[in-house]
Design the sequence.
């Protein structure tokens, strides 16, 4: 449970790095990037607040942007169902997974793939935007927010390139609270099923271990979950993602 609490705290810290609005307290932290892409704006937890009060306050802070509610183990029990009774729709459920980095399986990169750190957000964001569903017209705003990202930790951006130097895969390793959490792990659709996603994940774990992290955490899509399980990640919790 302690590892889960730490991963949840690191997760909140990463998403708050996107915030340019009012955060609020630990009972109702919100983040607002102003990028019109729901996962980049939202509510991170509800603790010690009635769902109706939380909804009213969140609407004020996040008015005008699409957003999601992350309802997980750090929210009060019953929050998701209470929000649904107030009109929320459940988008999906995402397992929260962790792994001891020292015990993670190897994943050799396929031939021709080079994985390096990058500090240039333009091509990096353009690559993960295509995978994550960020609309082309919103990519410039996302690039500007990535440039200005300021979280309570260190973001390491990894780009996977093939021989023609195109970025075909991305991963963000977020070092915070003594652990690493992973974001924007994705491969361009035409390059999938080659082991690139596993190699990007393994590379992120290696970088994190070199910088002192021993535990890794992430939230997984249905597509990514089998890959993460093969690498040694196991589910320790679940987020229910809601929207109004």
Sequence:
């Amino acid at each position: 449970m302690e590892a889960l609490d730490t991963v949840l705290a690191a997760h909140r810290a990463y998403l708050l790095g996107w915030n340019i609005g009012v955060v609020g307290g630990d009972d109702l932290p919100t983040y607002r990037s102003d990028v019109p892409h729901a996962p980049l704006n939202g509510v991170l937890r509800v603790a010690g607040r009635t769902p109706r009060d939380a909804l009213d306050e969140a609407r004020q802070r996040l008015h005008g942007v699409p957003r999601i509610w992350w309802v997980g183990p750090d929210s009060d029990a019953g929050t998701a169902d209470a929000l649904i009774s107030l009109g929320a729709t459940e988008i999906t459920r995402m397992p929260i997974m962790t792994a001891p980095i020292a015990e993670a399986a190897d994943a050799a990169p396929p031939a021709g793939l080079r994985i390096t750190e990058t500090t240039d957000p333009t091509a990096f964001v353009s690559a993960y935007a295509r995978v994550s569903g960020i609309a082309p017209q919103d990519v410039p705003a996302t690039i500007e927010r990535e440039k200005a990202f300021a979280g309570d930790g260190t973001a390491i951006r990894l780009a996977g390139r093939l021989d023609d130097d195109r970025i075909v895969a991305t991963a963000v390793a977020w070092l915070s609270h003594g652990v690493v959490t992973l974001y924007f792990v994705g491969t361009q659709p035409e390059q999938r099923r080659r082991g690139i996603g596993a190699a990007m994940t393994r590379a992120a774990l290696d970088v994190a271990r070199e910088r002192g992290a021993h535990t890794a955490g992430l939230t997984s899509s249905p597509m990514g979950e089998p890959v993460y399980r093969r690498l040694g990640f196991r589910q320790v919790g679940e987020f229910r993602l809601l929207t109004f």
User: Anything to note?
Assistant: The first helix runs from residue 2 to 16. The mean pLDDT is 95.
